[in-house]
Design a protein that fits this description.
Strand content: over 45%
Order of helices and strands: HEEEEEEEEEEEHEEEE
Structural class: mainly beta
CATH topology: Outer membrane phospholipase (ompla), Chain C
CATH class: Mainly Beta
Shape: globular
Number of domains: 1
Distance between the termini: 16 Å
Oligomer: single chain
Number of strands: 15
CATH architecture: Beta Barrel
Radius of gyration: 19 Å
Number of helices: 2
Length: 286
């Protein structure tokens, strides 16, 4: 996987690339760990619903670790708590980067948004898989607590819930064997989470930006597609993500300037080390 923050974000973006990490060729043994270095470039909105976007270029470590309980792979960084052929429960982490309000017109004069860290359990139900043709379809139910922190202070920023369908497969495209990922589902979050990103406290209200109290509930939905391939020691991939905020409980927030968000990015990494020890892929993964 690509060690990353899930973001306004860099997180959907880096996770999108993480979701497209190579599928092992059927049941062949694979290195227990792989390590490399790469670069990630993307165009991202300041936050979901913002009409201002920015270009980002970041280095990142390319890390894969396939342990019995601790795994860092195409599904993210997680501790596996329970696993069977069709069901898995793990513990995962994600987060969002900071937002500088002085650089966003809708948030001018408001406090900056601190980075967030999200953590919690995830139930994975395998719906279909085929090792011979190399595809897997899951339903995933991650629930995460959110902490906003700048390392000097921290506070509770609510909870998120993202039930979604996840499909991974290998496909013959552009003359090569590519890893394709597809993900879609609705987003939900608590009042505290929505208030953190979309609320306007009275002291920040203006004639153009009235005070606003966000409610908990539906946060919109997303569709995400990703594509990647590894050739020798070089891995590269890309993603496109579309979010719709239509019907979201905070859709009438004055900070919402657009009822959709579009994100896209590409990554390239060089894998310069891997373990001599080979392991079989765990669980129901193809």
């Amino acid at each position: 996987m690509i060690w990353s923050f899930e973001a306004r974000s860099l997180l959907p973006s880096l996770l999108a690339c993480a979701a497209a990490l190579p599928l092992p060729a059927r049941a062949e043994p694979v290195p227990q760990w792989e390590f490399g270095i790469g670069s990630f470039a993307a165009s991202l909105p300041d936050y979901r619903g913002s009409n201002e976007s920015r270009a980002y270029v970041y280095p990142f470590p390319y890390l894969v670790y396939r342990g019995d309980q601790l795994r860092v792979d195409r599904q993210g960084a997680r501790a596996v708590l329970l696993e069977s052929q069709r069901t898995e429960v793990d513990f995962s982490l994600s987060g969002t980067p900071p937002v500088d309000s002085s650089k966003n017109q809708a948030r001018q004069g408001m406090s900056n948004l601190d980075p967030t860290v999200e953590f919690g359990p995830q139930l994975i139900l395998n719906l279909a898989r085929d090792r011979e043709n190399e595809y897997r379809m899951d339903l995933r139910f991650p629930v995460r607590a959110v902490i906003a922190t700048n390392l000097r202070h921290a506070h509770d920023a609510g909870y998120t819930f993202y039930p979604h369908l996840n499909l991974n497969l290998r496909s013959e495209l552009f003359g090569g064997r590519w890893n394709v990922g597809f993900q879609t589902g609705p987003l939900f979050a608590t009042h505290r989470y929505h208030q953190y990103f979309y609320g306007v406290d009275p002291q920040f209200a203006t004639p153009q930006r009235p005070a606003y109290e966000a409610r908990g509930g539906y946060s919109g939905a997303l569709v995400l597609g990703s594509l990647s391939r590894r050739i020798g020691k070089v891995w590269f991939g890309g993603f496109v993500r579309y979010d719709t905020l239509r019907g979201a409980v905070f859709e009438d927030s004055p900070l919402i300037r657009r009822d959709y968000s579009l994100m896209a990015g590409v990554s390239i990494a060089y894998v310069f080390a891997e373990s001599d020890r080979k392991v079989e892929m765990k669980g129901a993964a193809p």
